[in-house]
Amino acid sequence: MSDRHATQPEGQAPSRRRELAQFLLLAFGIWPVVAVAIVGGYGFLVWMYQLIAGPPGPSGH
């Protein structure tokens, strides 16, 4: 038996295929959705702020 199997408890060895699937899900599924949500949420906040405070720039008086 190799040392790698001897150091991990029985039934606890992570599968490389499962790790790869989890990485791909995070890298191409969850994180892009989170990034779009953050950017969209920031844009929405700026839009709502400008509805209340007015557009940026000189007031034109």
Q: Which class of secondary structure composition applies to the elements? A: mainly alpha
Beginning-to-end CA distance, first to last residue: 83 Å
Instruction: Compute the number of strand runs.
Output: 0
Radius of gyration: 25 Å
Morphology call: rod-shaped
Q: Average the pLDDT over all residues and give the rounded result.
A: 85
Helix content: over 70%
Main beta-sheet strand count, sense and barrel state:
none
- DSSP summary: helix tally: 2
SSE pattern: HH
Q: List low-confidence stretches.
A: none
- Strand content range: under 5%
Structural features, described:
The protein has 61 residues and is mostly helical. Helix content is 70%, strand content 0%. The protein has helices at 3-7, 16-53. The radius of gyration is 25 Å and the shape is rod-shaped.
Question: Gist?
Answer:
By secondary structure, the protein is an all-alpha fold. 70% of the residues lie in helices and 0% in strands. The chain has helices at residues 3-7, 16-53.
Topology:
Layout: H1 3-7, H2 16-53
Annotation keywords:
single chain, 61 residues, mainly alpha, 2 helices
